Amino acid sequence: MRAAFATAFNDADPLSVLEIGDAPEPAPKDGWAVVEVRASALNHHDLWSLRGVGLREEQLPMTLGCDAAGIGPDGSDVVVYPVVYTDKGDFTILSEYYPGTVAERVTVPAYNLVPKPAELTFAEAACLPTAWLTAYRMLTTKGRLEPDGAVLVQGAGGGVATAAVLIGTALGARVYATSRDAAKRERIAALGATAVEPGARLPERVDVVVETVGEATFEHSMKCAKPGGRIVVSGATSGHLPRVNLRRMFALQLEILGTSMGTPEELAGLMDLLARTGIRPVIDSVVPFSEARKAFELLHSGDVFGKVVLDHTS
Question: Contact at 8 Å (CB) between 154 and 206?
Fold first, then answer.
């Protein structure tokens, strides 16, 4: 079957070790299911895999991709939940220990198949299992955001942050979002957020801060959180060792919470929210699977707003 996979590692030029070609068919396993992929979505995780992060040479070649939607063994429409428990008792995500989703078919444990609502297209559903699920968990399970609450999203424009803007708005919250890029601030405002420059003073302190940037924004995040507020962290793109004002933390009883991904039940809850409210993932481009390299080039360029999706039917 046709797939996109890493053949080696190259930190300086990750696309040089990307290969689009034939890969082995998924091997049948007890309790596992084969999904005919209809759409997959790329993440920066795929570029990190090509750089050698999270993979070892003995695992190569490794099929890339964490996110997919397609047809399950019984003919039903499904979304693939990407977290898999290994035979060592720990857990991983697809394309790290088991082959990923940028392929004609992928095999996963049967419990990883979540029914796709009819209201969502395959392309829309494929955007959800990684970035959108992380954002949903940050705001709900971890952030405990109330419908009349306020949330600050740092670094809007990235996958998780953009998802958090849309989800927060759908949940009925007042959403503030920062970005260094004026064009991105304009686009974020069009999604329903109050867009501000990094470090700007907000009209109010917020209940929840969605923090994926790290060192560059963490002090601002703490200043913007109201007493008892939650700063939920799922990334650190600008650095992972911020300075933390402990006096502010204990005086205001702030919570700093770490999270990543979510559960199959949360993925189902996320899709139900989209079906009920009409919000949809921001998709920058839909690229035919026959032109998969172009999709990786788009992601690598950094000149995208929203998800890059592969259409496996073309």
Answer: no
